[in-house]
TrEMBL record:
Belongs to the binding-protein-dependent transport system permease family. CysTW subfamily. It comes from the Bacteria. Part of the binding-protein-dependent transport system for phosphate; probably responsible for the translocation of the substrate across the membrane. It is found in: Cell membrane. Keywords: Cell membrane, Membrane, Phosphate transport, Transmembrane, Transmembrane helix, Transport. InterPro entries: MetI-like, MetI-like_sf, Phosphate_PstA, Phosphate_transprt_permease. This is Phosphate transport system permease protein PstA. Signal peptide: none annotated.
């Protein structure tokens, strides 16, 4: 009984010190442990772990080593292709075993599928690099001569050096033929794609079936069709125009099919919003659907161009072959770059073979240039306008604002007029 007053008195007798901060209320969240001076350990969000890299490298080394032993010591196998196939199959087997040691069944199947997809992608990339590099290496000699681009073969023979002759006639023929073919296929292809996507019905289903069937049409059939209808039927001579018509037959189903898929991906809510604002179906297609699908439509045009610019047999049947430059696509024979490559590679002369590979390299550069131009013209996403388009939109908005302001002033002026005024309604 006496201890409590004594302790209370001792506390009262102590000198006043600094104020003690009130204790914070306790929570259910556990206190964090003291972190080291270096800071919190950073967590990684990558799906690739160190064990995955070691499994891939180990399986690759084991597959190459075992395949080498098989091809050099145990079996009579030889050949680079057989070595690559056996090594790849052994790599998949070793990788499957290594992953199964640490992971469960679903994870093992997922890793195996991932390795298959990545290996196929790497294979395609390597094949593309090999094709491009091989063409550039074999055609590097004629590419160094300026006359190769500025002259034709009228004054050069198979035994002449690379300092004489060139592919000017083939470049002009390719550009003219693909330009005419694009001028025909772009409007027809986009119109047909709009018809298939915006006007569904029994006839559109029939047209879609025909287009899908024409997608796998052999190029020689297109050449024979134009040869029979235009050259034999109408009595026209072989020309670049006939070759462009044959290329159009090849390019048209590609553009229609790709553009149809892109137009069907446009959200239906955009169409409904435009129609709800009072726009007609044609204005909705022109101002809403086509601008939204512009990037995809350019991709469709690129696919069609890639199909037509490398064709040889339709051009051979409909345009013939010539060593001279013919800038007029409506008459006389005209040659293209693929046809020039085909004719040059068949020659036994080293200089003509080099010219053929050089023309192939120029064709690849031309295709790349066309693709870059197409991407620059139509590669913007929906809603992204160029500087000129933004300037035109701003001017149109200013004119609309002035017109609305004029209407408002006229309305107020009409209200302020006396009742007997002739302009008063």
């Amino acid at each position: 009984m006496t201890a409590q007053p004594t302790a209370r008195a001792e506390r009262r007798s102590q000198p006043p010190g600094p104020a003690v901060a009130p204790r914070r209320p306790a929570t259910t969240i556990p206190a964090r442990p003291d972190r080291p001076a270096s800071g919190e350990r950073r967590r990684t969000t990558s799906t690739v772990r160190g064990s995955d890299v070691f499994a891939v490298l180990g399986a690759a080394v084991a597959a190459v080593g075992l395949t080498t032993v098989l091809f050099t010591q145990l079996t009579p196998f030889d050949g680079a292709l057989g070595f690559a196939v056996v090594a790849y199959l052994l790599f998949l087997s070793f990788y499957l075993v290594l992953v199964s040691l640490d992971e469960s069944g679903p994870v093992v199947r997922d890793r195996l599928a991932g390795v298959l997809v990545h290996s196929l992608a790497v294979t395609m990339l390597v094949a593309l690099v090999v094709v491009v590099a091989f063409t550039l290496v074999r055609g590097r000699q004629p590419l160094a001569y300026l006359n190769f681009y500025l002259q034709d073969m009228r004054s050069a023979g198979p035994l002449d050096p690379l300092s004489a002759g060139g592919i000017r006639h083939a470049i002009i023929g390719t550009l003219e033929q693909i330009a005419i073919a694009l001028a025909i296929t772009i409007p027809l292809g986009l119109l047909c794609a709009v018809f298939l996507s915006e006007l569904p019905g029994p006839f559109s289903r029939f047209v879609r079936i025909v287009v899908e069937a024409m997608t796998a049409l052999p190029s020689i059939v297109a050449g024979l069709f134009i040869y029979a209808m235009v050259i034999l039927g109408l009595g026209r001579q072989k020309s670049g125009l006939a070759a462009a018509l044959a290329l159009s037959v090849m390019m048209l189903p590609i553009i229609i099919r790709a553009a149809d898929v892109v137009l069907r991906l446009v959200p239906g809510t955009l169409r409904e919003a435009s129609l709800a604002l009072g726009a007609s179906q044609w204005r909705t297609i022109w101002h809403v659907v086509l601008p939204t699908a512009r990037s995809g439509a350019m991709t469709a045009i690129i696919l069609g161009t890639a199909r037509g610019i490398g064709e040889t047999s339709p051009v051979l049947l409909t345009a013939g072959f010539t060593q001279f430059t013919n800038p007029d696509p409506t008459q006389a024979n005209q040659v293209s770059l693929p046809l020039f490559v085909f004719d040059s590679i068949r020659r036994p002369d080293a200089t003509m073979i080099a010219r053929g590979f050089g023309a192939a390299a120029v064709l690849m550069a031309l295709v790349l240039l066309l693709f870059v131009l197409a991407r620059l013209l139509g590669g913007r996403a929906p809603g992204q306008l160029s500087r000129a388009q933004r300037r035109r939109r701003a001017l149109a908005s200013r004119r609309d604002a002035l017109r609305f302001a004029g209407r408002e002033q006229a309305r107020h002026a009409a209200v302020d007029l006396p009742p007997d005024h002739p302009n008063q309604r």
